User: Fold these one by one.
Assistant:
Number 1:
Amino acid sequence: MIGVAVLGSTGSVGRSTLEVVSRHRDRFELVALAAHRSLEALADQVARYRPKAAVLAREETSPPPLETLPRAEWGWGKEALLELTRRPDVDVVVNALVGSAGLEPTLAALEAGKRLALANKESLVAGGDLVMAAERRGGGKLIPVDSEHSAIFQCLAGSSVASVARMILTASGGPFRGWSADQLWNATPSQALNHPTWSMGAKITIDSATLANKALELIEAHFLYGVDYDRLEVVVHPQSIVHSFVEFLDGSVLAQMGFPTMELPILYALSYPERVDDPGLRSFDPVRASPLEFQGVDREAFRLFTLGEQAGREGGTSPVVYNAANEVAVLGFLQERLRFPQMADVVAEALARLGGRRVESLEHVLAVDREARGVAQETVDNLQRKGTATRT
């Protein structure tokens, strides 16, 4: 029996993980759940799934009385969250937390020798070298859950990275595929949240609309597989059927395909290296999946993609700054304090002021993250104050 802890259990990936685990009770035991701030939703999940432990990562100065909560070992705050990843009855930690809050649990799980099913891309973006060092030091095993990186991971089975010519990640293009830079000025949050192929949380859905998520995934791939950026590409694939390609030195190309669902890469990460039959997953039908289209990325219209790729190539603090400033910019857009293209302006300003420095430690990463958020928030405030949130 494999003991599973789910961090970010109330989000879309977390909920999908619970569905997968529920279908395989003979194989997986749900040991612990954790959420960032949604106590009511977490309590509902504890009552339904009955894990041994539950943690609300947000610091609670006055936690509710335990008798008012479903029965479990309850914990509060960051330290309780980190301790959950080290539990001896936990074999696999699913990190589905949103944002840079996922970095420290990622490090803790790997240092404790756990298998880490990683859906928190910000862990690798903000602390890639630290994460890979923690995996080597602790003996843990990182298995990607993002559909694109799970696809690459599967395509590489039995092959070395040295034999790879290119890794090609696919992007759906989001709801604004084909829009010009001028059209994007009038894009609204409700339009951006209407993703054509995936059902995800608000932040990652906006990242998909801006293609920032593809820039983050390029940075992830650089660290996960140890490949330089000249061997990493992105193409737009509206159907979201092909999740990534791997081209080898001899010209052979492998692709992992399937209808859009996060449950497949989640199941693979939980059961690795085995493959488990799951009748709950949709069988692939190549006729219904046809036709398949592929297009280039419009780097002028989707500047956040270009900025992110540049940040990855610069390295050092630039990916940390990009990630942090993007989170602030996304919130500003969702609050209608920014226009869609201005999210890139916010990130560009933070990168110009804080990017390109050497990363020295976890504490340094966290400090740069805080500083970048401050610069980004200042930029959002200035843009709104100057009235540039409406084009003149």
Number 2:
Amino acid sequence: MIDSVEFAKYLVWRAKELEELYHVQYELGPTKLNKIMYICEGILLAYGINIIKENAQAWDDGPIYPRVYKWISEHPDVPLAVSETPDTIKKHLENYHALPLIDRGIIAFAARSTEELTAWSQEKSSPWAWAMQKAHGAPHYPIDKYDMARYFSKFGK
């Protein structure tokens, strides 16, 4: 299993690589990073790859990983300045054949605005909505990984 903060660091690093490769700007701010992480984890779960130790939670502004949120809050400039390859995480992801799936999530969604991703993550049929319904609207309820796998499987394999 991979620590959620280490996974987030990998996403920031990989998004920068893909920006250079495809000549695009992803601009992963704190909220957007959480949404991209949720999307990438959802894609992985749809393929039966459950490797992130932490569950996303249903917060008012969509899916949030509390440890990642805290890390960003305590070090606001660090997440956006990750410049070295998190090699240990990359090797772990390679063992699960997860790298192309993560790239797929970043490429398909990271160019969208934070507002678009937040609205998309909160659609009525989303795992976030199901978690909010289970919690009767109370925030910080864990988003079920099975619900994420089922939801993200509709995006095709």
Number 3:
Amino acid sequence: MNPFEITEMPDHTLLTIRGEVSLQNAGEALEALTSFRSKGDRLRLDLENVETADVSFLQLICSLHRTCLRAGQNLMLSGNMPERFKTILESSGYRRPRACTLGGDNPCLWTWRDEP
């Protein structure tokens, strides 16, 4: 099964990512992200079914986000940050209390508010 599926919706384009995303399929991930970015100005990432991810994938998503910001494209997560993905971010050191300086006033994809 292809871990990257692009679906064009009436008001946005959705990229659903499934399974394991790592250095082993980084080329395929880059190709999918590049194609995804070319599909419009309202882009959504669905990470609900990502089982594992390494730093190479997180770096590709950060690069995609910064590229979209510079191009005036809106890139957001589809739904809430999945618990499994929160664990991936924390274990890799990517949990962000605030956006990086490249993001300006735009929220970082890797931040989330802890529920009390």
